Amino acid sequence: MKAIIRYQNTANPLGFPLNHPAETRDMQINEVLVPPWEAISEVDLATLMAQNSAAVTAAIQAADLAVDTNQRNKLKNLKDLFDAGDVLEARWAAGTATNQEQKDLGRISYQINRMLKQLTLDNFRS
């Protein structure tokens, strides 16, 4: 026998089916389970896992896509800042940048550094 907690009784950040097991463990002989733990046979657990397989796979793929999209957006924003900085740097080098454009270049440089720091920390954590 196995003991399970279903997602209907715990946090479900990826949106798995509510009847899907969030946690499973082996039961001890004569063990009395405290709710939300419930007993389930290994056959019933395998059936439940098979029934939810497509929905679980879809939820995982959606989460992965969201992470990928977020990373692509961050990189696009970084590229946009580099492009804007390149334009202002060229104007500065040509001696045509206004005082405001010079300040903007400093602000853009700071934003680039901040974004690079965040991307580095995000990659370090994952």
Distance between the termini: 35 Å
Low-confidence stretches: none
Shape field: rod-shaped
Question: What Rg, in angstroms, do the CA atoms define?
Answer: 26 Å
Order of helices and strands: EEEHH
Please indicate the percent range of residues in DSSP E strands (runs of 2 or more). 5-15%
Number of helices: 2
Structural class: mainly alpha
Q: Average pLDDT value?
A: 91
- Largest sheet data: 3 strands, antiparallel
How many DSSP E strands? 3
> Could you estimate the helical fraction of the residues in percent?
55-70%
Characterization of the model:
This protein has 126 residues and is mainly alpha-helical. The protein has helices at residues 42-93, 99-125, and strands at residues 2-6, 21-26, 38-40. Strands 2-1-3 form a three-stranded antiparallel β-sheet. The two termini are 35 Å apart. The relative contact order is 0.10. The model has no long low-confidence stretch (mean pLDDT 91).
Topology:
Blueprint: E1 2-6, E2 21-26, E3 38-40, H1 42-93, H2 99-125
Helix pairs in contact: 1-2
In short:
With 126 residues, the chain is mainly alpha-helical. The chain is built from 2 helices and 3 strands. Helix content is 63%, strand content 11%.
Features:
126 residues, mainly alpha, three-stranded antiparallel sheet, 2 helices, 3 strands, rod-shaped
